Amino acid sequence: xxALNAAVREIADxxxxxxxxxxxADYIPELARADPGAFGIAVIGPEGIAAAGDADAPFSxxxxxxxxxxxxxxxxAGDRLWNRVGREPSGNPFNSIVQLERERGVPRNPFINAxxxxxxxxxxxxxxxxxxxxxxxxFLQFIAEDETIYIDDAVAKSERRTGFRNAALANYMKSFGxxxxxxxxxxxxxxxxxxxxxxxxxxxxAGRYLAHSGRNPTTGFNVVSPERARRINALMLTCGHYDGxxxxxxRVGLPGKSGVGGGILAIAPGKASIAxxxxxxxxxxxxxxxxxxxxxxxxxxxxxxxxxxxP
Amino acid sequence: xxALNAAVREIADxxxxxxxxxxxADYIPELARADPGAFGIAVIGPEGIAAAGDADAPFSxxxxxxxxxxxxxxxxAGDRLWNRVGREPSGNPFNSIVQLERERGVPRNPFINAxxxxxxxxxxxxxxxxxxxxxxxxFLQFIAEDETIYIDDAVAKSERRTGFRNAALANYMKSFGxxxxxxxxxxxxxxxxxxxxxxxxxxxxAGRYLAHSGRNPTTGFNVVSPERARRINALMLTCGHYDGxxxxxxRVGLPGKSGVGGGILAIAPGKASIAxxxxxxxxxxxxxxxxxxxxxxxxxxxxxxxxxxxP
Amino acid sequence: xxALNAAVREIADxxxxxxxxxxxADYIPELARADPGAFGIAVIGPEGIAAAGDADAPFSxxxxxxxxxxxxxxxxAGDRLWNRVGREPSGNPFNSIVQLERERGVPRNPFINAxxxxxxxxxxxxxxxxxxxxxxxxFLQFIAEDETIYIDDAVAKSERRTGFRNAALANYMKSFGxxxxxxxxxxxxxxxxxxxxxxxxxxxxAGRYLAHSGRNPTTGFNVVSPERARRINALMLTCGHYDGxxxxxxRVGLPGKSGVGGGILAIAPGKASIAxxxxxxxxxxxxxxxxxxxxxxxxxxxxxxxxxxxP
Amino acid sequence: xxALNAAVREIADxxxxxxxxxxxADYIPELARADPGAFGIAVIGPEGIAAAGDADAPFSxxxxxxxxxxxxxxxxAGDRLWNRVGREPSGNPFNSIVQLERERGVPRNPFINAxxxxxxxxxxxxxxxxxxxxxxxxFLQFIAEDETIYIDDAVAKSERRTGFRNAALANYMKSFGxxxxxxxxxxxxxxxxxxxxxxxxxxxxAGRYLAHSGRNPTTGFNVVSPERARRINALMLTCGHYDGxxxxxxRVGLPGKSGVGGGILAIAPGKASIAxxxxxxxxxxxxxxxxxxxxxxxxxxxxxxxxxxxP
Lengths: 311, 311, 311, 311
Description:
Four copies of one chain form a homotetramer. The first copy, chain A, is built from 13 helices and ten strands. By secondary structure, chain A is of the alpha+beta class. In chain A, a hairpin with a 4-residue loop joins strand 7 and strand 8. Chains A, B, C, D: It holds the Pfam family Glutaminase.
C-alpha cells in the first residue's frame, strides 16, 4: 500500500467518526435530504487512484460544475469571456447582488453565482437549452471517461422552484445587457448543470486535466492549453470557495472549488486530482469535513503549492 | 551565464524600452518624485543572485513592508493575531473603509491598509513607537543581511502630513477597540515602516525565508516554521495586490506583495525570492511593469505554482 | 381672475419658453416618444380648478400611481402592510437593490420600486392579476370622478419587455418571502398600474383627498381617515422623489410624488391638490420643469408647509 | 388654563409614569449618568410658554446644536455651504462612514455627524477654536435670551477621549479636502458645541425663529430670512432624526432635531417652538418618550404640517 493509499484511508476513517459535521444545505429542498454522516474521498495521483469512504456514491456537484462550464466557455469564447465576468475575489457571499450594482452588472468572477450564470449564458449563446445542457453533460462524461454521469432532474426542478435569488441575479445582469439569451433559458441550463450528480471517483477523474497541464495523463489528449489550466487553477485558488477562499488557501494551500452539495474538487498541480464529499457545510457554504480532509491530505503529502516542509 | 541570468537581463532590457509605464503615485508628495523610467529586478535562486537594471537603487518599499510586519506580529502574537484581522480578499480598494463598517472594525486581511495598521498595533503593543520601529528595521536588516537599510524620514513625514485616509481607518478601528495603542503611536510606526527604503537586491535577500520553508537557505537559520511560511505565501497570493490580486494570480501565478512605491516582492516556493521595481502604477495601485516582468519571468522559468508547461 | 389663476397661467407661460427641459426617460422605449416641449399644470384649490398648458393631455403617470396603490393597500391590510415595507428614505436611487440585501428583502419605503412592488403584491393577495388591476383602475376613476382614465397597454408591454431590473427586485424579495404571489403576477399588475394614463386635470382631481383630510371636498365622501391622509403626505414628503426627496422638500416644501413619465402630484394640505407634467427629467429621475413650476407656485401662493413669509 | 397648558401637563404626567423609557446613551461616559426617569417639556406658542416636568433641568443638547450651527454657517457662507454638504436623507445610521466613501467625502446632509462636522469647519474657517466656539455659544444665548447657557466641559472632554468614530469621519473628509481646518481644531469645536447644556425652556426659546418665519416674535429681530427658516425646517423634517426621520415625520408630522442626550427640538411653523427631553433612546438614537410626547401633542393640538383632522 502506497503512502497515498494509507493517508486516504486514515483520513476517511477519522472523518467518519468526527462529531462536528457542519450543516446540510436546506435552501434547496432536495439537497436537504443528504445524509450528514456521509464522507467520500478519491485521489488520482501518479500511481493510480486511492479512494475511501463513500467514494462511489453520487452527490449533487452543484457549484463544482462551474469549473467545467468555465472550461467550456473559455473554449467557445476565449478571452472575450472576460468582457462579461471579472477575475477578482468578491469579498461577499456567493449570492450577493450588491457588487453587481456597484459594477454595473458585471460579476466579479466566474465562480460566484452571478458569474457562473454569465458563463452559462456564453455556452448557451443562441442554442436551445437542451443542446447546451447536452454539451455540458457530454463534456463531463468525456473527461471523466464515464457515460453514467447524469443530471438529477428532481434537484434541478427543486432549484427552479426556489431559485428566486438566482433569478434576481440573472434579471439584474440582463438589465445591463450582460446576458444575451432569454433569462429563463439561461437559468434553466444553469439549474440543470448544477444538478449534475457525480461520485468522488468520477469528479477526481474529471479534474485530471487541471493537474496535468491541461492534458489527460493517460490518453495524452489535450483538454486545454497548459496556460489555460494554470489560469483556471489560479481562479479556483482565489475565488473557488466564495468568501472562504482566503481561508482555504491559508489552510489547505491547493486550488479548489466547492459546491453546496458538499463536494470539493482540489488540484495539486503536477501531482493529483482530488475529490472529497461530505454534505455538512460551514458558515461560508463550503463542506466542513471536506476542507479539513483536504488540509490533512495536503499536509501529509507535502502538496501545498505554497512550499514544502523541507527547504 | 545561466538561463536565469539570461532571462533577467532580457526582461530588464525589454522593460527599459517599453513606452507604457503606468502612473507614478502622487498622493504622497515625496513619492511623486520617483523616476518613471526606472526599472530594477533581482532574483535569488538556487544558483545565486541574478540582477539587472536599477537593482541597487533604493526605493520606498511602502506596503511590501507589510509582509515583514505580519511575520513579526505572528511571531509575537501567534494565532491570536487573527482575532484582530481576517484572512480574506477584500473585494475593495486598498484604502476602503466600507468593509470596516460592515464587519465592525475588523479588517479583512493584513495587507490592506486597515489590516496592516492593526498588525502594526500588535507589534507596538505597549512599547514606545521608537522601540517598535527599531525592532522592525533590525528584523529587515537581519533577514536581508544588510545593515545599510534605512527609513527615509522625508517620506515618513510626507505621509504623516497627508495620511488622513489612514488616520480615518485607524480611528475607525480604535472606535471598535481593534487598536490598543494611542492612534498617533500606531500611525507613527505604520508611516515609518512604510517609508523604509530598500533596493531590489536587498528586498530579494529579505524574502528568501518565504521561498525556503521559513529558513535562510545560506545560514540555515529558521525565521519562521515551514507552515507559517506557506501561510504567509497563501495570504500574499490571495490578498497581496489589493483588488488586483486575482489578476496577479491569474497572470503571474506567484505569491507577491506590491507597494505604491512601485516595488513587488514575489516568491517562487522552493525556487526563488524575486524583487522588481518600477514606479509607474496600474489602476489598482500595483507596479505596471513590475507585474509584466514577473509574468514574463514566471512563464520563462516555469515557476507558476499553478502548473507547468509539460505534464 | 383669481391670484391662483394668474399664477398658474404665468408659470405655464414661463415653463413653455425655458430652454432647460431635462432629459426624457428612454429606458422604457414607449416613454421615449414623449414631447420634451410639453408642459401642463392643474391646481384644484378652494375656489375651483386652475389649469394651463397641456393640462388635458394624458401622460403615463408611472410612479405617481404608487400613492394610490399605497392608499388601496393600507385600506386592505392596515398597519400590517408595514411588516413588508419600511417608512424611511432610502438614500439610494429608485431602482437600487443594495438596500434589499442589507435589510433582508424588506424595501425601505413604498415609493421606491421595490417597495411599490411589495405594495402591489398586497393588493393582489390571491386574486387574479386582472381583478387587482381592475380594482386599482376603478379606484382612480372613482376618486378622479372620471371614467375615461385608462391603462396604456403599449406602455405596459414595453415595460414588461424591458423591466429586468424590476424583475430582479421582485425575485429578490420573493427569495426572502416578502412577496406572496407568483412573481409574474405581481410584476404584471405593477407594470400595468404604472402604465395608467392621466391628464394633469385628472391627477389633481384624484389627489384631492390628500389635501382635504382624507375626504372628497365636494361630495364629503371619506376616502381615508384624516390621520391616514397625513401619514401618506408625510411619506410623500420624505420619500416621494427618490434620492431627490430632500431637495424637493428644501425647495418646494410640499408633499409630492413624481413619476418617470414627467408627472408630479403635489399636495398643499388644507389648500390644494396640484398636478404638473413635463417629460424632461433631472438626474434623480424627477420632472425638471415640474419641480421648478411647483417651487414657483408654492412660493407665490405661500403654500409651503414649512412656514410663511410673514410671521 | 389654556388648552395648550392642559395638554402639556397631561402629557408630562403620562410620560412620568410610563415604564418603557428607552436606553440611556452609554457611548459617551458622561452622558450615561443621566436619570432615565427624567422628562421635561416646554412649548412656546402664541399665548406664551407652557412647561411641565423637568422643563428647567439642563441637559446635554448634543446634536440639537446642529440646527444652530447650520443657521450660523448659512449666515457665513450662504449657499456655498452646499458645496461641502448635501441635503438628502442618508438612509444610514448617524455615524456611518459608508456613504462618505461612495460620495467622495461629501456628507449627505448637515444633521448626520459627518455633515455637522463639515458645518463646524465652515464656522471655524481660519479662526481659533476658542473664538468659533464663543460665537456659537453667544448666538445661542442671544436667540434664547439667556446668558446662563453654558458648555459642559466634562461632557466635551468625555467625547474627545472617546470620539474615535467622529475622528474617523473628520479625517476621511479631510482626505478629500472637504475640511479646511486642522482636524483637531474642527473636532474640538464640534465636541464642545455638542456639549452645550440647555433646559427645555431655553431650547424652546432658542427655536422660536424657526416657528416664526425667521424672526423673534417678541422683539421682531430677524435671525434669518423667511425662506431660510423654511428650508432649515425642511431639512429637519427629512434628516433631523437620522435613520428614524421617516418615522418621525409619519408619526409626529413636525420638523424636529434630536440629540443623543435625549432632547428634541420640534417646530410647528407659525404656531410653536417645542422642546422635550427624556434621556432614554430608541434604536435609532432618538429620545423614546420625547417622540411619543410630541406625537401626542401634535395630534391633540392639530399641529401636523401634513393636514388637519377636519378638512
